[in-house]
Amino acid sequence: MSSNQENAARALTWTVSGMDCASCATKIRGAVERLPGVGDVEISVMAETLALSLDERETAPEAVERTVKRLGYGIAPRDVKGPVAVDQAGEGACCGGHAPAGGHDEAERDKRWYQTGKGRLVVVTGLLLAAAWAIELLAPGPLSPWAFTIACLIGVLPVARRAFAALSAGMPFTIEMLMTIAAAGALLIGAAEEAALVVFLFAVGEVLEGVAADRARAGIRALGDLVPKTALLEEDGATRQVQAAELRIGQTVLVRPGDRIPADGAIVEGTAGIDEAPVTGESVPKTKGVGEEVFAGSISTDALLRIRVTRTPQDNTIARIIRLVEEAQEARAPTERFIDRFSRYYMPAIVGLAVLVALVPPLFAGAAWDTWIYRALALLLIGCPCALVISVPASIASSLSAGARRGLLMKGGAVIEAAARTDLVAFDKTGTLTVGRPMVTDVWSADGGDEQTLALAAGVEAGSSHPLAEAIVRHATARGIRPRAGRGARAIAGRGVEAQVDGETAFVGSPRYAEEQGVMTPAAKRKIEMLEEEGKTVAAVFRAEALAGVIALRDEPREDARKAVEELSALGVRSLMLTGDNERTAAAVAGGLSMEHRAGLLPDDKVAAIRELTGRQAVMMVGDGINDAPALAAAHIGVAMGSGTDVALETADAALLGNRVRDVAALLRLARATMANIRQNIVIALGLKAVFLVTTVLGLTGLWIAVMADTGATVLVTLNALRLLGFRAAR
Questions:
Q1: Given 275, 428, 624, 628, which residue is catalytic?
Q2: Are residues 452 and 524 in the same domain?
Q3: Is 105 a catalytic residue?
Q4: pTM score of the predicted model
């Protein structure tokens, strides 16, 4: 569109029912992009949405809706609950016409298969086929072929309408067109019984494929169902029940023991065990009290809580997880893009081969026309790439759903594919391999005044949010030591903090920085070496002219860190710790975890180390999602640790919501299982095609076997992909 048109265009979003695979999205995209005034088309199969910008001076929104309906899908504006049913009973579209009339709206989901539009089509075509067989059995003669012809025509009519709608949109090579040609051709050569059977099997395939594909969405819908529909709102001392979707930031809700929390918020009264399994996958409840954050969908197991709402229902953690998983469906893996490109050439090649099979033997070998036309029609059906096209996105969808339910978020197929190739996992130390809550273990003063050293350090660090600074201030408070009054504090990147204390500049920094400033003493160096060999982090406290003392802190490794390294090693993946700590401390921590390490790294050094490593192998970087953002971005895959934090969800390629180091190995196992599943699906799809292409050309299998092979391959591929929904994070 021109710039003037872009200015006149407005963004519109519809709910589209019946989209069950990437081919559905491709078909809709191809049709609506041809409409004048349409741009920026975005389609989400998982969310069942169509978004685009539209210049209504050229095309009305109703024209977009008519175009989508003609392809066999239900469509309604996004703010209307439930999509509009398509016009023809039983219509739907996908590789095999997966969608029912009315699609996958809430009402449709609650129906049994035989109550849906495509289910009714199966019943009708099945009854007509049975009636035709009964006529053939009870009254053999010229009547039974007409009965089979009628059964075929009634069943194929909605398919043909979709085929010609796609043809008018510039997409001739669809399964609907192949089915229409095959059925019409079979009728013309007198194979009415087989034509009717083919149409019936095709309708059965639609039911099976639609049911199987909807299972992939069920996992994501189940996440949304974890958030309760109602909440107990407290206002003016009274409690009333309201819709959870209407809650606003700042309101207070009451959560009784055993209730699910209706919104993301902070506890203002009460202490309880919180079961966060829906969000983080962690099965052991965490005890939380006043001031601590809780997530929508988690459960207060044993106490009454009052919670202040901190996020709108549309922006709570589970809602954001669902959005990320839905968006991740559109981040296609390289394998999926290759399959799509391959299928564009494969389909015309199959049609060309079918034409040759129909023409060459009769023209050049005098073979029977009806025999070779029949084989060509069967070849058209067996050659449909439905199973191949759906093989990758079906596995990706199941994998993303399974991961989300276990606190493992990956943003798309490309991330899954890259994670499966990982050779080395680089870990940040503080907050990733360790619990991120260091404790002061030793205070040593050059003149024996330990309390003065601690008071000076606390005065410099007061107000800093760095974990080491908070630990020093916390320790001083616990010992009843009042921090010296400091002002004008500023951080010195990679070295420490300085502030004005009692009119003089004071520093809390690394021993190396103290040495650079010329204040380090031999006695202090010996003490520091001893502390660092014990795996402790040491901060030097000094003024411009003299060292006051040193403070040692230790951040204990997470309970599962060592087990995580062992599991990665079992997968053939190396583990490397990157830290700003000195060599002796890093060696002590890494040695306890049996992993490699690099020490003394400033933030820029971490990025340089990651870039060096990525030049030789596939590298995953795991950090806290805040301080390590540059290193996360530099790695092939950046993974953020974090229990649903904004940064953890938004900045990295993947996030571990449970804050468990072992989840890194679980994520790699899921990624590898997904890629293995994809390879299995491709073998199933191409293997069955290859076998039946040969048997069809040789005349060993006919039309109904061709349809069963095509539909069967699609169903097998989808069911195989759904096995990933049962993935278990524990090895």
A1: 428
A2: yes
A3: no
A4: 0.70
